[in-house]
Write a structure and sequence with these properties.
The chain is an alpha/beta fold and 547 residues long. The protein is 38% helix and 19% strand. The protein folds into three domains: 6-95 and 235-320 and 474-546, FAD/NAD(P)-binding domain, CATH 3.50.50.60; 120-230, no CATH class; 324-465, Polyamine Oxidase, Chain A, domain 2 (Alpha-Beta Complex), CATH 3.90.660. The protein has helices at residues 26-37, 81-89, 119-129, 134-155, 162-175, 184-188, 195-201, 217-227, 239-251, 295-302, 305-310, 313-316, 337-340, 355-364, 378-381, 385-388, 419-439, 455-462, 504-520, 525-533, 538-546, and strands spanning 6-7, 17-22, 42-45, 57-60, 63-66, 96-98, 102-108, 111-116, 232-234, 255-258, 262-268, 271-277, 283-291, 325-334, 346-350, 373-376, 392-401, 447-453, 493-495.
Length: 547
């Protein structure tokens, strides 16, 4: 089994670090690697058996799946910010492979629509289905591009000192367009009253976990713009992300430890100075502490209760909600992706065009009539797959769920939850597999292995509160919370990752950038210089073209 990071041992822990990062998700790794690039000795602590957070891979029965990196936009453009950040923190060792031009296939009822890479191609494809809505489609693409161009202005406060950043966040509504502070449905209904078009344009809502009437239009626009020029997948699988970043951290004298769950952040006289591990009570010390464990887990569990209450942190948590939980099938098939006819395209499957009504029906009567099912083909996306796993293929099927479904088994041990738990998982799995067979019936006889993960799995391995997958919900109210900031009211304690900016690999990555900048104070410009100066060399470009 491939794993990243080093299993923690007392004799490997250094007496003191410049910074400790709790959690090895992409936000934590990004923060750690940027600090390492600037000469800091950083210790990353991961409670799982492998580093990477949602970028790690899962292996079973001779197959491998990504657990969160299904596709990433913008990285095929060497000049894009997200690509430059990845190149900085991986020493340009991380390569990307393009997906099919039709990167997302939207199936709503019995109708199918394609998201095609490129702004003009995307608009042309939409106009084929909605010729009378040409103006609305053009305006929509202009709006998501406008939002993207203003995003640095929206999140600029996250790189500032805390008080300045909070004041900046309070003032945003006065110098940004009003659609930054409206729901996706509110904004799209100013463009069109065509419910079918709204349903198609918002068909990636599963990428951020909320249907149009609940989600922030800003969040939707960021995701839509992120992918509109195409989707990409890391060459070698998502494990390549951590594999290429960890050496950068270690080269500066740091460590990335696994099996290193943190019980508490050590704080004295309102100053964080270390952490205490869950196993053995080992204490590790550093000048600065960074939590990539998520906003709620950090303030609810890692910060001592008295300190959290002193600053009103747990009271503030009442102003945010946890995001959706999910179930996911990891399926393995005999035969390679080519022989089985598997695409480098994602499927989004919906029962009807009005996603809000679908979600409401699901929540009012939470059976297995899923409002959304997502299907991904990781083995087809990775150009190195066939050399690593010949005559095998993989599929992942994701759907929303409720933590309440699994409440009776909460607190039980992973892989030892009993026959009734396994029977319920089998019931869910059969529904999801039948959805896959609807599009690829040839896979029914090729199925070799499958396993279903639940919110309990997510909570067990990722330490996510209630098994959520996107941290806190991406509502308009969430983005109005000026107190959510990388710099906490506790001296030398910082937050990083998705909750600092937004969900997704790109959002969490930029959270890492913001946190590193905020930690450096007046020297924050050094992070900008790193990102500005990087550019892939000719060997890297050739490697990607070959892939």
């Amino acid at each position: 089994m491939k794993r990243t990071g080093t299993r923690i041992r007392k004799n490997k822990i250094q007496s003191h670090y410049d910074a400790i990062v709790i959690g090895s998700g992409i936000g934590g790794l990004c923060t750690a690697a940027l600090l390492a690039k600037l000469g800091k000795k950083v210790c990353v602590l991961e409670q799982h058996y492998t580093a990477g957070g949602y970028t790690h891979t899962y292996e079973r029965n001779g197959y491998e799946w990504d657990v969160g990196v299904h596709y990433i936009g913008e990285v095929h453009k060497p000049w894009s910010v997200i690509r430059r950040v990845f190149d900085v923190i991986s020493d340009s060792q991380l390569a990307w492979a393009p997906m099919d031009a039709h990167y997302d296939r939207i199936v709503i009822g019995d109708e199918t629509f394609e998201y095609v890479a490129g702004r003009d191609a995307f608009k042309a494809e939409m106009k084929k289905h909605f010729p009378e809505e040409g103006k609305a489609i053009d305006t929509y693409v202009e709006m998501i591009s406008k939002v993207s161009s203003l995003i640095p202005r929206f999140f600029a406060g996250q790189a500032m000192p805390r008080m300045a950043g909070m004041l900046y966040n309070k003032a945003r509504k006065y110098f940004l367009p009003d659609y930054f502070f409206k729901t996706t449905r509110e904004v799209l209904e100013t463009l069109t009253r065509n419910e079918k078009l709204i349903g198609v344009l918002t068909a990636q809502w599963g990428d951020y976990g909320l249907p149009p009437a609940q989600s922030s239009f800003m969040m939707h626009a960021m995701v839509a713009k992120h992918y509109i020029t195409g989707g990409n997948y890391p060459v070698g699988g998502s494990i390549s992300i951590a594999e290429t970043i960890i050496p950068v951290i270690e080269a500066a004298g740091g460590n990335v430890f696994t099996y290193a769950g943190v019980e508490e952040i050590l704080i004295k006289q309102n100053r964080a100075y270390g952490v205490r591990l869950k196993k053995g009570g080992q204490e590790i010390y550093a000048d600065k502490i960074v939590s990539c464990a998520g906003l709620v887990p950090t303030y609810q569990h890692l910060v001592p209760k008295a300190v959290a209450e002193q600053h009103g942190l747990r009271r503030e948590l009442k102003n945010v909600e946890l995001s959706a939980s999910h179930v996911c099938i990891y399926a393995g098939f005999k035969g390679n992706s080519t022989s089985l006819g598997l695409p480098k395209t994602n499927y989004w499957v919906y029962p009807q065009f009005n996603h809000d009504l679908s979600v409401k029906a699901f929540m009012d009567s939470p059976g297995l009539d899923f409002p959304m099912i997502y299907i991904s083909f990781p083995s087809a996306k990775d150009p190195t797959w066939d050399s690593r796993y010949p005559d095998k293929a993989t599929v992942e099927i994701v759907a929303p769920s409720f933590p309440q479904w699994f409440e009776k088994w909460k607190g039980s041990t992973w892989n030892k939850r009993g026959k009734d738990y396994e029977a319920f998982k089998e019931e869910i799995a059969s529904v999801l597999l039948e959805t896959l067979y609807r599009f690829y019936p040839q896979l029914r006889d090729a199925l070799d292995f499958y396993e279903l993960s639940t919110p309990l799995s997510t909570e067990w391995f990722q330490w996510n509160e209630a098994g959520e997958i996107y941290g806190i919900e991406h509502t308009v109210k969430r983005f109005e919370q000026d107190w959510i900031h990388p710099v906490t009211p506790i001296k030398n304690l910082y937050l990083t990752g998705a909750d600092v900016v937004t969900a997704g690999v790109g959002g969490a990555l930029m959270g890492g950038v913001m946190t590193a900048s905020a930690m450096l104070g007046w020297r924050a410009y050094q992070v900008g210089q790193l990102i500005k100066n990087v550019y892939p060399g000719p060997d890297m470009v050739a490697k990607e073209v070959t892939a």
